[in-house]
Amino acid sequence: MNCLKREEFHWPADVAKAFNEIKQRMTEALVMKFSDFSKVFVVVCDTSGIIIGGVLSQKKHHVAYFSKKLSGAKLNYSIYNKEFHVIVQSLRHWQHYLLQQEFVIYLDYETLRYLNFQKKFNARYGRWVEFLQDHTYTLKHMSRVKNKVVDALSRRIVFLTK
């Protein structure tokens, strides 16, 4: 509905009702909870190829979401590097939550569980490993079937840009 007609602003009742419903849903914390720094944080990451996404949670309650579209050279990364990139970007995004304590990272890409045992790597990989060494974390595998929230986040922009 176009609220600006003939250079006058019209705010019909149905538009006001929709606006109030959106405002109410955005201000009520039905899905997300406040963080509790005495509990362990969990980071779940995923990539869809052109989108990366992550969820920060505690005790199965979501605290924050992260999603970003890849561009430029990052689109040409191998799946291994894209999955590693989403870990690094998620940790940078939530660094203020994660630097001071131990946390768990769940991935659906099994190979990354062994990233600390690689013998040969490039400069970018070295910077990422160095960044991860500032954190105290445990890497665990999570099957794609259980990774629904992050999977949806890592695909959201694909549908929005079509």
In terms of topology, how is this protein built?
Blueprint: E1 4-5, E2 8-9, H1 13-27, E3 41-47, E4 51-58, E5 61-69, H2 79-93, H3 95-98, E6 102-107, H4 123-132, E7 136-141, H5 148-153, H6 156-161
Parallel strand pairs: 3-6, 6-7
Antiparallel strand pairs: 1-2, 3-4, 4-5
Helix pairs in contact: 2-4
Structure, explained:
The protein has helices at 13-27, 79-93, 95-98, 123-132, 148-153, 156-161, and strands at residues 4-5, 8-9, 41-47, 51-58, 61-69, 102-107, 136-141. A five-stranded mixed beta sheet has the order 5-4-3-6-7. A hairpin with a 2-residue loop joins β4 and β5. The chain is 35% helix and 25% strand. The chain starts with a strand and ends with a helix. It has 162 residues and is an alpha/beta fold. The longest helix has 15 residues, at 13-27. α2 (79-93) packs parallel to α4 (123-132).
